[in-house]
């Protein structure tokens, strides 16, 4: 039986951890890790499968005979615009570990804004004993934009916590016990939303979507008075100067951001200095490497058995 071509790995995160795990991953075929300097000159023309996240710009010129491309994350925007992208199936990373981590982050942020955690933090620093009586979760409507695997799980978890939850997606999704809206009903959706949660993929339509005009359409006069913006989708979906301006002018009462237009977030960015903003360094749902490699192995096995791949990207939709 001829040797199987190795899996090509080009992942621009956690290089030490990936190198360690790759020692035992893909035991039937091995791998080529482009983070290894010795691999930079390797002939990639016989490679069938590639696992990518922010790959080298010339990757598709070197690996011209790929059969399947796997994304190292839930999104695929890190390589969709690279020159030479072949017309082959592209598979997103979908795994319970990533989904659970994202829902944990979303619920955490909603609860911190609900329970006015920043004020408690300030009181603790100043050694002030000052009790507060925040509203209950049921008094807050959380609107989730993006109802894929991550969004649907977040909606369920928020519902369990007692929030009133609604959802929006380009085409309407039917979810038990959740009022949903489609693209034609965006303004209606926004007008009902106290906490706006962004879990949308990055497409031409979503680039710059979260801007001043959108924030102005959110529900005002709710239990906390001002709406809150929470984004763990994609940084380029938001206009950061508009977030700053909306908070400084009182249009938004706060924000939680895990993604940014430029990453790492520059030290001089005004978002750092806004007390009502929670910032996390794009780690709301980091891909767990063991789970990622198991996912790729399982999908390769399906493909080679002649079974349909799962979680294939719709290229027209961009996700």
Task: Give your account of this protein's structure.
InterPro entries: D-isomer_DH_NAD-bd, NAD(P)-bd_dom_sf. This is Bifunctional glyoxylate/hydroxypyruvate reductase A 1. GO terms for molecular function: glyoxylate reductase (NADPH) activity; hydroxypyruvate reductase [NAD(P)H] activity; NAD binding. This protein is of the alpha/beta class and 319 residues long. The chain has two domains: 7-95 and 287-304, 3-Layer(aba) Sandwich (Rossmann fold), CATH 3.40.50; 99-279, 3-Layer(aba) Sandwich (Rossmann fold), CATH 3.40.50. The protein is built from nine helices and twelve strands. The chain has helices at 15-21, 59-62, 96-114, 117-126, 149-160, 186-191, 212-215, 240-249, 289-304; strands at residues 7-11, 31-33, 49-53, 68-71, 90-91, 141-145, 164-168, 179-181, 195-198, 228-231, 254-257, 277-279. Strands 8-7-6-9-10-11-12 form a seven-stranded parallel β-sheet. The chain has a five-stranded parallel β-sheet with strand order 2-1-3-4-5, covered by helices on one side. Helix 7 links the parallel strand 9 (195-198) and strand 10 (228-231). Helix 3 crosses helix 5. The longest helix is centred in the N-terminal third of the chain and has 19 residues, at 96-114.
How is the largest sheet built, in terms of strand order? 8-7-6-9-10-11-12
- Using the CA coordinates, give the radius of gyration: 22 Å
- CA-based shape: elongated
Q: What count of domains describes the coordinates?
A: 2
pLDDT averaged over residues: 96
- In percent, how much strand structure appears in the residues? 5-15%
Count up the helices. 9
Binned, the helix content reads 25-40%
CATH level-3 fold name of the largest domain: Rossmann fold
Top-tier CATH class of the largest domain: Alpha Beta
Low-confidence stretches: none
Task: Give the beta-strand count.
Answer: 12
Distance between the termini: 37 Å
What is the annotated CATH architecture of the largest domain? 3-Layer(aba) Sandwich
* Structural class computed from helices and strand pairing: alpha/beta
The H-level CATH homologous superfamily of the largest domain, spelled out, is NAD(P)-binding Rossmann-like Domain
Sketch the major β-sheet: 7 strands, parallel
Organism: Rhizobium gallicum bv. gallicum R602sp
GO molecular function: glyoxylate reductase (NADPH) activity; hydroxypyruvate reductase [NAD(P)H] activity; NAD binding
Domain D-isomer specific 2-hydroxyacid dehydrogenase NAD-binding: 109-282
Pfam families: 2-Hacid_dh_C
